[in-house]
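Hi everyone,

Forwarding the result from last night's run.
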Amino acid sequence: MAEPCICGHKKPFNKCCGRFLTAGLLAKTPEQLMRSRYSAYALGGYGDYLLATWFAATAGPLTAEALSEKTVDWVRLEVLSSEQTDDKATIAFNAFYREPDHSVLQRMHEISVFQRTAGRWLYVGGEVSAPIV
């Protein structure tokens, strides 16, 4: 049996986040988009996907090249809550990671905002709490 997806779901990568990252399918829910974006960061090399799923007005000067860089070792995702009203959604989550030269597990808490535009969910931005060791 295939390994569970890096986003934490028990489904294999190709039936979970892989269908968005490599097969070009669009996320039907904000949580699918958030999980696939986490997977893109965790795996590295998916800057084009991250930029394409970012609300253009808030992406600023980000580049696919910069977003493709894997700067930390993402270990685990924990979804805390998800709320959707019409074409807007917020998702609160913890993402656990290790910096390259450290073995200490750290936690980033974020409340992400998503917007559905022309039938497509996009990441607008988020409120990130300082890392907790």
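The chain has a mean pLDDT of 94.

Cheers,
N.
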